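Dataset card, provenance and construction

Sequences and ligand SMILES were collected as paired inputs. For each pair, a complete structure of the chain with the small molecule in place was predicted and serialized as C-alpha cells. The example below shows a pair involving pyridoxal-5'-phosphate. Curators did not alter the output after generation; any descriptive sentences attached to a record were derived from the structure itself.
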Amino acid sequence: MNKIKIPKNRIRKLKTFTLGQRPYELQDLNSKKSKNNLIDLSSNDYFGLSRDKDVIKASYQVSLSEGLGSGSSRFITGSRPIHKLLETQLAEWLNQEKVLLFPSGFQANIAAVQGLANRNSIVIVDKLIHNSLLVGIRASGSKLVRFAHNDLEDLENKILKFKSTQQSILIIVESLYSMEGSIAPLQEITGICKKYNVELLVDEAHALGILGPEGKGISFNFSNEITMITGTFGKSFGSGGAFIACNSKIGEYFIQTSGAFRYTTALAPALAAGALESLQKIKSHKEWGINLLNKSEKWKKEILRNCSYQVKGDSQILSIIVGQEEKTMLLQKHLERNGFLAVAIRPPTVPLNKSRIRLTISRDLDLDILKNFISVLKAFK
Ligand SMILES: Cc1ncc(COP(=O)(O)O)c(C=O)c1O
C-alpha cells in the first residue's frame, strides 16, 4: 500500500450535501458560506421521489413491521413479503417471468454478467458501458471485446470475428448511456443478436421509469429477444436497490447459483417498500416520462440557441461538452458560485479532451431556473 500513488488530477473531493428547502435544492455542507443552497442539476432522482411523502411513509411503515434491515440473506431468514410483492409487481409491469432483487445496481450487474458468461465466453460490449458491467466481465473470466458506441456495423463485425470460434457470445449494452445521454438502437441490436443467435444483456438503469412505453424501459418492446435486463431503484425510483429480469428458467438458475444473490444481506425492507410505492406512482402518472423528456429537450435547445457549446443527449441526461479538463472545472466552479450544482465529468470517466458538464434534468425544475441557468452559462468566459 505504501507504493500506491494517485495522480494529482485524478484526486476527487468527497463532498457532503443535505437537502435544501425546495424540491430541487441541495445544500453544500463543505461550503464556507453558512447556507449554500444549490439547484441540483446532477443527481439521478429524476422525479424527486426520494423526497416524496408517500414513498417515505411506505418505507417507514414497512420498517416498523419488518425491521430496518433484513438481517440475513434471502436464503437464510432475510426474505420478506415486501420482496416478493415488489418482485411480482415489477415482473407484471415489465411483462417478465422473473424478477430478482439485489442490494444495488452495481451488484446486480456483476451478478448478471457472471451468470451469463464464463471463461469460455466472448463478451462484446458497447465502449461506453458502466464500470459495474466491466467488473462483472473481469470476475467472469471471459474475454472482453468492445465495439464503437452505438455502432451497429462494428458490433456485427465483432460478432462475425468471433462467431467461428464456437465460444458462446454475450452482447452487453445500456439502453440509455449515463455520460452521453444517448439511446441505444435496441431494435437493430436485438435484430443482430437474433440473426447470429447470441445472448443480450441490457442495463436499463437510467431509462427505467422514463423511456419506453409508460416508462417501462426501451427494451420493453423487444423483451422477447433479450436474455436479461437489469435496473436500479436508485435513480428514477428515488430509493435504493436493484433487480434483474429474465425468464423463469434463467431466474431459477440465478437463485440457485448466483453468489451475488445468495451471499448478501437481502435488500432492506424499507428500500423495497419505497421502490414499490414509487412504482405505483410511476404507473399512475404515465405522463411523467414524456413530460421530463420534453423539458429536457427544451433545456438542450435553449443552451444550443444561446451558447456555442456542443450539447449531447437525447434524454433527461445532457452533456455540455467543454473539452479541456481545466476549463470544465472552471465552468463547474462558475456555475456553483452562481447557485447551480452541475458536476464536471472528466477523464478517466470520459476520454481526454472530452470533459463535460453533465446535466440531469428533473421534474421540478421550472422555466425560471432554465432562464437563470442560461444567463449564468453565457456569462462564463
Ligand atoms: C448505467 C448504470 N448501471 C448501473 C449503475 C449502478 O446502480 P446502483 O447505483 O444501484 O448501484 C449505475 C449507477 O451509477 C449506472 O449508471
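Derived descriptions for this record:
The chain has a mean pLDDT of 95.
The chain has 13 helices and 15 strands.
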